[in-house]
Amino acid sequence: MKRDSGYNTRQKEKLISFLVNNKEKHTNVQEISAYLLAEGTPVGTATIYRQLDKLVENGVVRKYSFDGKTGACYQYIDDSRECREHFHLKCLKCGKLIHLNCDHLSGLREHILEHHGFMVDPSQTVFYGVCSDCSSAEDKD
């Protein structure tokens, strides 16, 4: 994987640090901007998008665009782990994005290819619904 060896500004280092420290989840520009502001390194959203685009191009970060209505999510690519072979669940209430490793869905993917001639990209496939946390909160109300 090609890493960016160019000039590192303090903002870029903080951005990468945030992504590495949050590699287990998908994050968005608003979360990154709030973090940088809290760290005393405010950066405009255009600059954040530009830096993220470079990181995506260099294979350091993966970009997810799910529904065309909400902004893209980003995730640091850990060399030891891939996010290409599983589906995702997106909570319509809280916005949480859950990585779903499920053998049953792998069978569905194979079925769709074999019987319908269509190859599903699981890294870009999202099931929308309500997560267990939000569902539990609704039950208590």
Relevant terms:
single chain, 141 residues, Arc Repressor Mutant, subunit A, Dna Ligase, domain 1, three-stranded mixed sheet, two-stranded antiparallel ribbon, 5 helices, 5 strands, 41% helix
Describe this structure in words.
The protein has 141 residues and is α+β, with helices and mostly antiparallel strands. The protein has 2 domains: 10-76, Winged helix-like DNA-binding domain superfamily/Winged helix DNA-binding domain (Arc Repressor Mutant, subunit A, Orthogonal Bundle), CATH 1.10.10.10; 87-140, Ferric-uptake regulator, C-terminal dimerisarion domain (Dna Ligase, domain 1). The chain has 5 helices and 5 strands, in the order αααββββαβα. It has a 3-stranded mixed beta sheet with strand order 4-3-5, with no helix packed on it. A hairpin with an 8-residue loop joins strand 1 (61-64) and strand 2 (73-76). The longest helix has 14 residues, at 103-116.
> Which range does the strand content fall in?
5-15%
- N- to C-terminal separation? 48 Å
Overall mean pLDDT: 82
Beta strand count: 5
Total count of domains:
2
How many helical stretches? Answer: 5
The low-pLDDT segments are 1-7
The name of the CATH superfamily of the largest domain reads Winged helix-like DNA-binding domain superfamily/Winged helix DNA-binding domain
Rg estimate, integer Å: 17 Å
- Globally, the shape reads globular
What does the largest sheet look like?
3 strands, mixed
Summary, kept brief:
The chain has helices at 10-21, 29-38, 45-57, 103-116, 132-140, and strands at 61-64, 73-76, 87-91, 97-100, 126-129.
